[in-house]
Design goal:
single chain; alpha/beta; Rossmann fold; 2 domains; five-stranded parallel β-sheet; 9 helices; 12 strands; 18% strand; elongated; binds NADP nicotinamide-adenine-dinucleotide phosphate
């Protein structure tokens, strides 16, 4: 039985080292060097070439290298019986929380403006306690971000598919409560998974439901955002601006209008990056569980797509 890494667009060196350090005897292969595809039962995957999983007749588990699994599930040719797992990691949550807090503080304290204008020109600013932050997606990362913001005195609301009770957070759920959730969100943070339901969710009518002067943060996936709609509502003054960490095309092409828009902050998909050293133990634990026929951890619901 072999353990295969498929990561053609990202160098898997750090994963190989971390796996070998934890499990020196692991029968590890790296795609496309596969001796016998029928021996592969477990794959650690990041942005695989779609369609290839049909060739692995005995494959049981596809483990995502990250928290998101849209790169796997968007391949419609993966047989139904194959289980998909994702990463749930404390460090990922901490990194995401600090990143979102930094973006909000940078916005509220007008730091980008001060740093770029080279002029002694103090501005007034809004306090966290006067700022309502709405988080779309109250899963592992959304709840982590909410906790960090509450510690820093922000008013936090959250929106999810199903009803939630989270200490200190006013919660909304479902399409029927979306507008109410948006109405008071001075800062909107997107932490939804990318699914057929959430694709293009950040579009004109959603932006228009936000209060005038709101700020949008997208740290989930580029395909959530209708880019032209965002530019329109920023240019017509409805939104104050946006901070974007994820894009439809990554790296963001040099000629993309986001680079030139002074109200849009671009970062290169760095909100929280999986550290192979901290995550390999959970990957190997699931590998052992699979071999022993035990229930896996962090399994994705393929019907819900997250
Ligand atoms: N930029 C980065 O560096 C980076 C790093 C890691 C992850 N991410 C992104 O962050 C995403 C979220 O990760 P996570 O671990 O927090 O996911 P998660 O634990 O699966 O949580 C997803 C949340 O979204 C809600 N949701 C899903 N579909 C919805 C819908 N149609 N309407 C309303 N709410 C919906 C879920 O609602 P229920 O609770 O009701 O099910 C849940 O609260 C990942 O999928 C990934 O794309 C980005």
């Amino acid at each position: 039985m072999s353990f295969l890494i498929i990561s053609p667009k990202k160098d898997p060196k750090a994963w190989i080292e971390a796996l070998k350090a934890e499990a020196p005897d692991l029968d590890l292969e790296v795609y496309p060097q596969v001796k016998d595809p029928s021996k592969v039962e477990y794959v650690l995957s990041w942005r695989h070439p779609h369609g290839i999983y049909r060739d692995f007749k005995n494959l049981k588990v596809i483990a995502s290298m990250g928290a998101g699994i849209d790169h796997i599930i968007s391949d419609k040719e993966i047989p139904e019986h194959i289980q998909i797992t994702r990463v749930v990691d404390e460090q990922l949550t901490k990194d995401m929380s600090v990143f979102v807090l930094s973006l909000i503080l940078e916005h509220l304290r007008n730091l980008a403006q001060h740093h770029s204008q080279n002029e002694w020109k103090p501005t007034s600013y809004q306090l966290p306690e006067d700022t309502q932050v709405g988080i779309m997606g109250m899963g592992v990362l959304g709840v982590g971000v909410a906790e960090k913001l509450i510690q820093n005195k922000f008013n936090v609301t959250g929106w999810s598919r199903t009803k939630k009770e989270i200490l200190g957070v006013t919660t909304y759920h479902g399409d029927e409560q979306l507008e109410e959730f948006l109405r008071e969100s001075r800062v909107l943070v997107n932490l939804l998974p990318l699914t057929s339901e959430t694709k293009n969710v950040l579009q004109k009518s959603l932006f228009e439901a936000l209060p005038k002067g709101a700020f949008v943060i997208n740290v989930a996936r580029g395909e959530h955002l209708v880019e032209d709609d965002l530019i329109e509502v920023i240019n017509n003054g409805h939104l104050a601006g946006a901070a974007l960490d994820v894009f439809r095309k990554e790296p963001l092409p040099r000629e993309h209008p986001f680079w030139k828009n002074k109200k849009i902050r671009v970062s290169p998909h760095i909100a929280s990056i999986t550290n192979p050293v901290t995550v390999v133990p959970q990957i190997l634990e699931n590998y052992e569980r699979m071999k022993e026929g035990k229930e896996l951890k962090n399994v994705v619901d393929r019907e819900k797509e997250y």
